[in-house]
Amino acid sequence: MEFHRHDVVIVGAGLAGLFAGLYTSREFDTAVVSKVYPIRSHSGAAQGGCAASLGNMMEDRWEWHMYDTVRGSDYLGDQDAQEIVCREAPLVIYECEHLGVPFSRTPEGKISQRPFGGHFSDFGKGPQKRACHAADRTGHVQLHTLYETCVKQDVRFYSEFFTLQLIFAENGACRGIVAWDLRRGGMHVFHAKAVLLATGGYARAWKVTSNSHANTGDGLSLVLRSGLPLEDMEFVQFHPTGLYPSGILVTEGARGEGGYLLNDKAERFMERYAPQKMELAPRDVVSRSIQTEIDEGRGIGGKNFVHLDVRHLGEAKIMEALPQIHELALKFTGVDCLKEPIPILPTAHYSMGGIPTNTQTQVLKNSAGDIVEGLFAAGECACVSTHGANRLGTNSTLECCVFGRRAGISMLKYLREDPCLPDLPQDAADQSIERVEGLLESKGSESAAQIREILQSTMTEKMGIFRREETMKECLAKIKELQERYKKIGLQDRGRVFNTELMEAIELGSMLDFVEPIVVGAIARKESRGAHFRKDYPKRDDQNWLKHTLAWKEGDSIRLDFKPVVITRFQPEERKY
User: Fold this and answer.
1) Is the dihedral of CA 84, 89, 92, 94 positive or negative?
2) What phi and psi, each to the nearest 5 degrees, are found at residue 163?
3) pLDDT at 107
4) DSSP element (H, E) containing 293
5) 3-state SS assignment for residue 33
6) What is the rounded distance in angstroms from the CA atom of residue 539 to the CA atom of residue 42?
7) Phi and psi of 292, rounded to 5°?
8) pLDDT score at 424
9) Pairing relation of β-strands 2-11 and 30-34?
10) Does residue 507 contact residue 216 with C-beta atoms inside 8 Å?
11) Pairing between β-strand 355-356 and β-strand 342-351 as defined by DSSP bridges
């Protein structure tokens, strides 16, 4: 057992974690603990852009951006948080620029901006170019720039450490974490005054997904196992364009640059679903449209995909604005998008729900808004709630930057008040030791890989774009069965050095934790809103369901509670595109 002491410990090295570390490291000793090497964090997969009303290409205002975000969220987002993210967007974009992010430029030298789904001008009336981008590698260059800056500021990185447990003092304040050293083996205790969870999303619980293999929702599992709630877990976004059949992301920037969707009859079928906004309608609308075409037999050749056509953009435009999409389509489907349309299907992509926080990124422990002292969360693992029931494209990297930055500022304020650092509890690491040793010594007959495969297939089949009560209950029963089978798994590799079988077994445990609140919350929410679409309740029900869901794991069941949505500027109205 090794012990470390830092003022701040940040779990996760994506955009939110690094932005927070950038701020806290200016005054306090800061450590970042990540289960991957930092620049392999999933933020690097963000392609299309980062929204901000800079107005470089055409007139824009933050109020228009906020209206689009509110409407895109199907009115479930908290408008105080949505106002913050839209007001502070230009500030963080210029901060990124000054740190060295190499954005694409206009001929005049300004940051280039492109259209994206759901972003419009003048309160939804006209087209808009709001997505600041670096070709189609935006998240990649932001991640590298922030990492290099953190290294320059002496942030201490613990790469390839798997966080297993949060440590709490007797007064309930969070005072550190316990992590397993994946490379060398061995348990490590990190003692800290403040802990930030920035662990990313969890769409790896689905078989067809745009997410990296690391996105297994470990941070959410840490919170659930600590007796704290998760918020709005039933809202999981399916991105319209994942490469067929793997689901690897094809950025919405492809449609923003002018790409369009075709079915087996070569029809631009979005005319039937969103005649005014077509392919640039919000993601929930476009995903349901594609899936409807497939379900009604108009997939290409009757198969489970349609076409995204960018050929008319020409080679020069594609290689300048979408070079990564050209490369990904060629490598993973064998399609040269200069000459052929790209086969795509909707893919599990983004989690709108997560760890409940206030706008200062402090983690909440109930619907009354009481905070957990010393514990913060930001980025995709958190639910502030900026995205409500449906996230607009390019608002994700933006949220990570805005609320990662705010997390850093909040922790600075907290640390300046000099919170005490009490001695660690004697049994601080006992739970983690028991868990890891139990897995290493397990001799059960069940295979973690097989359970994981069944879980992912079940979630794809029964918790996809369209949902029904009957199939969701079947999904919940299967999850219960898999949770029992998980208790009987056996590992083949009992080594302690870079034991990836051990890591995947722990990740599977995380997934089996957080999928249950997703299904229980979705069964309870008897309406359709944003990404949560029920064929048995196809209408939005503001009278009964304009509220957030909170879910606790208590014994073998999930307890739900609810809290009101914050509405300030824009009253709910029907969404039409």
Assistant:
1) negative
2) -75, 130
3) 96
4) helix 283-295
5) strand
6) 34
7) -65, -45
8) 87
9) parallel
10) yes
11) unpaired
Q: In terms of DSSP H, where are the helices of 88-176?
A: 89-99, 138-152
How large is the C-alpha radius of gyration of the chain?
Answer: 23
Structure pTM?
A: 0.96
**Contact, 18 vs 152, CB < 8 A?**
no
Question: Which residue, chain included where needed, has tokens 């890591």?
Answer: 503
Where does 38-147 show beta strands of DSSP type E?
50-51, 113-114, 120-121, 126-127, 131-132
Residues whose CB falls within 8 Å of the CB of residue 365, separated by 6 or more in sequence, listed in order = 228, 229, 371, 372
Per-residue pLDDT, 473: 98
Using the structure block, give the residue that is written with the tokens 């408008």. Answer: 79
Q: How far apart are the first and last CA of the chain?
A: 57
Mean pLDDT of the chain: 96
Q: What are phi and psi of 520, to 5 degrees?
A: -65, -40
Residue with tokens 């640390």, as numbered in its chain:
415
The SS3 call for residue 165 is: strand
- CA-CA-CA-CA torsion sign (505, 509, 514, 516): positive
- The residue to which tokens 């075709």 are assigned: 262
H-run or E-run covering 8: strand 2-11
What residue ranges of the chain have pLDDT lower than 50?
Answer: none
- Cite the beta strand spans of 160-259 per DSSP E: 161-168, 174-181, 187-197, 230-231, 236-243
H or E stretch including 72?
A: helix 62-72
Do residues 205 and 247 touch, judged by C-beta distance below 8 A? no
**Cα angle, residue 418 at apex, residues 414 and 420 outer, rounded to 5°:** 110
Decide: residue 181, CB within 10 A, 0-12 exposed, 13-18 middle, 19+ buried.
Answer: middle
- What are the beta bridge partners of residue 191? 5, 176
d(CA 326, CA 100): 26
Question: What's the pLDDT tens digit per position in 411-466?
Answer: 999 999 977 788 888 889 999 999 999 999 999 999 999 999 999 999 999 999 99
Tokens of 36: 């991957």
Which residues are marked as active site? Answer: 283
243 neighbors 329 (Cβ within 8 angstroms): yes
Q: What are the Cα distances from residue 549, in Å, to 20, 283, 367, 471?
A: 27, 22, 9, 21
Three-state DSSP state, 524: helix
- DSSP-based three-state secondary structure for 324: helix
Residue of 70, 180, 49, 96 whose CA lies nearest to 496? 180
CA 306, CA 172: separation in Å to the nearest integer?
Answer: 52
Q: What is the pLDDT of residue 422?
A: 80
pLDDT in tens, 153-191: 999 999 999 999 999 998 899 999 999 999 999 999 999
Strands (DSSP E) contained in 536-575 are: 547-554, 557-564
